[in-house]
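Before the break, one more example. Copy the sequence into your notebook; we will annotate it together after we see the structure.
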Amino acid sequence: MARKILGVAAVLLLTAGWAFADITTITFEEFVGLDGTPVGTFYKGITFESGAGGSDWVAREGRYYNVSSWETKEEWGTGDYWINNYVSATTALEAGEGNDGIIRFDNKDAKYVELNYAADARGLYLEAYDKDGILRATAYGPPNLRYIDGNESGPGTLHVDWNGTDHIAYVIVHDSGNYWTVDNIKTDASGITIIPAPAAVLLGMVGLGLVGWLRRRVG
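Here is what the structure looks like once it is written out:
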């Protein structure tokens, strides 16, 4: 019986590990308490690069900006920019910052990319390119600030997909000004892994401890 329980525990632990490896939604919540930190290569398999404007992607913690959280219903400053939880990412939000940014997939095999956004009067574009730099798909989202635009529906959504011979190698996010932010980036690109949050690490440690205890019981 103990051997059977040991086998089940091991399978559950491995399944948890695979779940972490298969995560394809980037929420930026790993940057809570790290406002202004460059995103860059923080996530394995995906790189956040500066665009033509030359500004880095940085994590923006909502409490320091004019942001409303759709999930927690908290509001900071004027509350105009919708994000999902506590942190989003952008190359913009401040005068003089860049109005574009690149998100590059290491394996160049994404079939779709989707993200949530908030943008001022110029709206926001999401453009998908293949490995040869050919534009394959474009999505545009209109201005959607909470109070200025009267939007009480939360962050907007932009989605691009391309399933041709060459898949999506990278996307460019841009407007014609300097005021936008994005959140909850979803994609089916392979090879992307996210550093587990502390709770996930704790769960893994508990699982390993359980397996070790059961082995000692079996022995």
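The chain has two domains: 1-23+194-219, 25-192. Residues 2-21, 197-208 have pLDDT under 50 and may be disordered. Try to locate both features in your own notes.
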